[in-house]
Design a protein that fits this description.
Elements lengths: L6 E7 L4 E7 L2 E8 L9 E10 L5 E10 L14 H4 L3 E6 L2 E6 L2 E9 L4 E7 L2 E10 L3 E12 L3 H10 L3 H17 L2 E3 L3 H16 L2 E3 L2 E3 L8 E3 H14 L1 H14 L10 E3 L6 E3 L8 H16 L2 H20 L1 E2 L2 E2 L26 E2 H20 L3 H21 L11 E2 L5 E2 L7 H5 L5 H11 L5 E2 L2 E2 L23 H10 L5 H13 L37 H13 L2 E4 L2 E4 L9 E9 L2 E8 L2 E4 L8 E4 L2 E2 L4 E3 L3 E6 L3 E7 L4 E7 L8 E7 L4 E7 L3
Parallel strand pairs: 29-30
Antiparallel strand pairs: 1-2, 2-3, 3-4, 4-11, 5-10, 6-7, 7-8, 8-11, 9-10, 12-27, 13-14, 15-16, 16-17, 18-19, 20-21, 21-22, 23-24, 25-26, 27-28, 28-29, 31-33, 32-35, 33-34, 34-37, 35-36
């Protein structure tokens, strides 16, 4: 206004949008930016600007849109456009009040920018453009203006079609908001811990945000904005996605089955999903963790969804992966042959440590292979492949014995990191000790020793588990992308999950520590930290974020930790088992509308009794109801659910905050609406049992 820029006041990070408020000479301004994430309109970004004028005079406002290709490289930014992007130049043309920008030399790359408002001026260069709009805000009135950009890799006509077919910005925002609300209601988990509840909700939001539809199929990249789909990350992602977006999980697994299988059945390391045809690489490793993990992911997807047709399509990939594992066994262990370094010489998850090698008989990979063969054996039974079932089960037992006889350190009493290709054992104490625990290889005594070690100060920090103990010779809190002593939240999740039976208190502590940095009072002090996002990795010393502001794979991993850690879901091909893991001072945990075992269920664990709407196996006292009837009650408490059978109805209300809550129970659960007032302390709950009315 009058040549003066508006002053930004506050930024709000909401599920469906990001909003910044401004002040300018008495005007109140809000700018909302969002991506629809809905239907076919996935290549559009919207911006809505609302301006309120409380004064008695109309006001003229200039809105200047600066567009740069590629984005600016800001100080301390982790993501920097590569040289190919920085070298691009563009040419622009006007087309019915919109600007069409095409990459010079690549006519398929087109962006279309426009607004219902008429532009006042336009200034264009080969790096972008600046366009100014003028709006008049009436006295004591308000104005809304909208701006939109559509992109296409299929040329100008496709980009213009995408732009023209797009829903108006207001409608698109409503659709985006409704989508996130629907996802929030799926598998709606609540606990007595407010911080964990917030973390679960943001985990759902961010699981959805990174889902892509590449030309090759559905997937997500571990390094936005690239198109690299890493198979190990797909496998871990599916464990959480199966509960809230199972169709996306299926699409990812089918992408791997179609484009990620090497000759002989080995699973590749990654796929470039925008290439035509898609390219893949296995780093010339004879065995990697991707191969066993994808078999585990298919088992999990089938156990959760009971989707028989998908299992039949994916079974050849699983069988090939299991057969490949058998072919890489020497005696009773699986061996990685590489004598290279970095990604070409590390067969497990920490595969980007410069000048490092973890190959030979690797404990992590062997533990995963034993587990994959165990699950593969069960899938073989489902597919009536008895010969494979027997071979895989026998090999799983053999590898487990091999790990516990040949891969145990005579120095530490725990597991070796590996025996390298030259036969040298490596006794390093790293976070990789968790894999024999996580995959059911360690006996109870060694399991407890490993968990006690990882929860000791050498590893345990206020924000999670160090990848390497700080007393180890190779410890460095920042070198090797924090894989030699930094904090990676996914490792903390694996350790927390493995503690569920031994110490639910540690499980909860791990869940809090993973999320805690996302709610620090001064995010800027921790560098690449944004409220509401799970950072990729932290320094092991000062805990500053050293990677992406949001890890694409941690949100679904956190959901897996909630469903299968806290709630204790154990999806199996022979049925669902539920054994919740609660600290002694927790009275309850509950979930509503969760997709599992091929159906939808709700359940509450309250005072050592499990109330469910589905027959399950459990070590707890079990009460099974016929259906969820929450639609007949209304409550302002954080969690409520109602379940009914032929004789009675159970109404449960739980909270993570103290308060007086209103509960209304409506017909047909009662003859007439009943009002209840419940005074609950933080973490408290109330169970009301009703006789069904006739």
């Amino acid at each position: 206004m009058d040549g003066q820029k508006a002053t930004p006041l506050e930024t709000v990070l909401a599920p469906a949008y990001q909003e910044t408020s401004f002040a300018a000479q008495g005007l109140h301004i809000r700018k909302r930016t969002f991506v629809p994430m809905h239907g076919d309109h996935l290549q559009i970004v919207h911006m809505i600007v609302d301006i309120q004028n409380p004064s008695e005079q109309p006001q003229d406002v200039a809105i200047i849109c600066d567009v740069h290709y590629p984005g600016f490289v800001w100080p301390n930014a982790y993501k920097i456009p590569d040289q190919t992007q920085r070298s691009k130049r563009l040419e622009h043309k006007e087309h019915n009040n919109v600007i069409v920008s095409t990459t010079v030399g690549r006519e398929d790359e087109v962006r279309v920018f426009g607004s219902p408002e008429r532009p006042l001026t336009t200034y264009a260069t080969d790096r972008g453009f600046s366009r100014t709009y003028r709006v008049t805000v009436p006295a004591r009135g308000a104005v809304r203006s909208a701006y939109m950009m559509a992109i296409s890799g299929n040329g100008e006509r496709a980009a213009l079609a995408t732009y023209r077919k797009a829903a108006p910005s207001e409608e698109a925002l409503a659709q985006a908001t409704a989508l996130y609300e629907r996802v929030s209601e799926r598998g709606y988990v609540r606990t007595p811990d407010a911080m964990i509840n917030r973390a679960i909700e943001w985990a759902k939001i961010n699981t959805l945000r990174v889902q892509h539809r590449f030309p090759a199929g559905f997937g997500f990249t571990n390094d936005p904005s690239q198109d690299i789909v890493v198979v190990r990350d797909v496998a871990w992602y599916a464990l959480g996605s199966d509960y809230i977006t199972p169709d996306f999980s299926r699409g990812m697994l089918e992408l791997i089955a179609q484009h990620g299988v090497e000759d002989g059945g080995k699973i590749t390391e990654f796929i470039e999903a925008c290439a035509d045809p898609p390219r893949r690489s296995d780093y010339d490793l004879n065995i990697n963790d991707d191969t066993p993990l994808i078999a585990c992911a298919v088992y999990h997807h089938y156990a959760v969804t009971r989707d028989r047709k998908t299992l039949e399509r994916l079974w050849p990939m699983v069988k090939g992966a299991c057969d490949w594992i058998l072919s890489q066994m020497r005696g009773d262990l699986v061996y990685a042959h590489s004598i290279e370094a970095n990604v070409w010489g590390i067969s497990g998850w920490r595969n980007i440590i410069p000048q490092s090698q973890i190959s030979g008989a690797v404990t992590e990979v062997n533990a995963e292979c034993a587990y994959a063969l165990r699950l593969g054996s069960q899938l073989a039974r489902e597919m009536q492949d008895e010969a494979s079932r027997e071979r895989y089960a026998a090999a799983a037992d053999s590898i487990k014995r091999g790990i516990n006889t040949k891969l145990v350190s005579d120095r530490t009493g725990l597991y070796l990191l590996n025996i390298d290709p030259e036969g040298e054992p490596h006794h390093d104490l790293t976070g990789d000790q968790i894999f024999p625990v996580l995959f059911g290889v360690a006996d109870e005594e060694r399991k407890r020793k490993i968990l006690d070690t990882l929860y000791a100060p050498e590893f345990w920090t206020p924000f999670g588990v160090r990848t390497v103990g700080k007393h180890q010779a190779d410890y460095d809190p920042d070198h090797g992308v924090q894989l030699l002593g930094g904090v990676w939240p996914n490792l903390t999740a694996w350790v927390a999950y493995s503690s569920k039976s031994y110490s639910p208190r540690r499980l909860v502590s791990g869940m809090r520590n993973i999320w805690k940095i996302s709610e620090v009072e001064n995010p800027k002090a921790y560098q690449n930290v944004v409220p509401g996002l799970f950072p990729e990795r932290l320094s092991g010393q000062n805990f500053k974020s050293r990677g992406m502001t949001m890890s694409p794979w941690v949100p679904p991993t956190y959901l897996w930790l909630a469903y299968e850690g806290l709630l204790g879901f154990e999806p199996r091909v022979d049925g669902l088992h539920i054994n919740p893991h609660l600290p002694s001072d927790w009275k309850w945990v509950g979930v509503r509308n969760v997709r599992v075992a091929g159906s939808t269920m709700s359940c509450v664990y309250y005072r050592r009794t499990l109330f469910t709407t589905m027959p399950v196996a459990s070590r707890s006292k079990l009460v099974v109801f016929d259906e969820d009837v929450t639609r007949y009650i209304a409550a302002d408490a954080p969690f409520c659910v109602a379940m009914r059978d032929g004789e009675r109805t159970a109404v449960f209300v739980g909270t993570d905050e103290p308060g007086i809550y209103r509960l209304t129970i409506n017909p047909p659960l009662t003859r007439s609406s009943e009002e209840h007032s419940l005074e609950l302390r933080a973490g408290d709950a109330k169970l009301i049992m009703l006789r069904n009315v006739s």
